[in-house]
Amino acid sequence: MRDSETATVRRVVAPKFVTWALIVFGSFEVLWVIYLVFNQATEGQAFHIRLASVGLTGALAVLCGLASWMLWTRRGAAATFAIAAATVALFSAMLVTLSPNLQLVPTAGVDVIPLGLAVMATIGAVVGVRAVLGDRTDRPNASLTFAIGCLGFVAVVAALRTGATFTTSVTSELATHTRAVVVILDIGETIGLLGAGISSLRGLPRPTFVFATMAATLLICDAWVNVVLVPSGPAFQAAIVFLFVGELPSIVLCSIAAVWAWRRIDQPIA
Question: Which pLDDT does position 110 carry in this prediction?
Answer without folding.
Answer: 55
